[in-house]
Specification:
The protein is mostly helical. The protein has helices at 3-32, 41-75, 80-110, 114-130. Helix 1 packs antiparallel against helix 4 (114-130) and helix 3 (80-110) runs antiparallel to helix 4 (114-130). The longest helix is centred in the middle third of the chain and has 35 residues, at 41-75.
């Protein structure tokens, strides 16, 4: 197994853990059944703005780290620096997507309704699904 294939495999395993964790947060909320109470719209709005910033930063870092590294790796699969940058970009992407899910978790614990907190879960999980690790390298 080449270093690129090994890193892709480990990134996919890590991706699976992040995706599983997102669904486990939902399972925990179903088990603990936090009470719903009116939340100030400023709190929800502030968390939504922070999530938009987090997503923006994640998109920027993905374009800088993953796209550039993947381009380098497509021509030279043995480039260890590009491989390290690609892997770091993947981990950062997963972390930012999971952050959106965690904000949904926090909102639900604070008493938000499922339609509010659930939208954060949906966005975070969709980001995780969309950001599945891919690496095209020549053998």
């Amino acid at each position: 197994m080449t270093p690129a294939q090994s890193n892709l495999r480990s990134a996919r395993i890590l991706h699976l853990f992040f995706l599983t964790a997102a669904f486990l947060y939902i399972f925990v909320l179903i088990q603990i059944r936090p009470s719903e109470k009116p939340l100030d719209s400023i709190v929800i709005g502030a968390i939504a703005i922070v999530c938009l910033i987090v997503i923006g930063v994640a998109l920027f870092l993905r374009s800088r780290m993953i796209s550039e590294s993947a381009t380098k790796l497509s021509t030279n699969p043995e480039d260890t620096e590009a491989l390290r940058t690609w892997r770091s970009g993947q981990i950062i992407s997963f972390t930012f997507a999971e952050t959106v899910v965690l904000f949904g978790f926090v909102l639900k614990v604070l008493g938000a309704r499922w339609n509010v907190a659930g939208s954060f879960f949906v966005v975070g999980i969709l980001l995780l699904v969309a950001w599945r690790p891919k690496l095209d390298v020549s053998s």
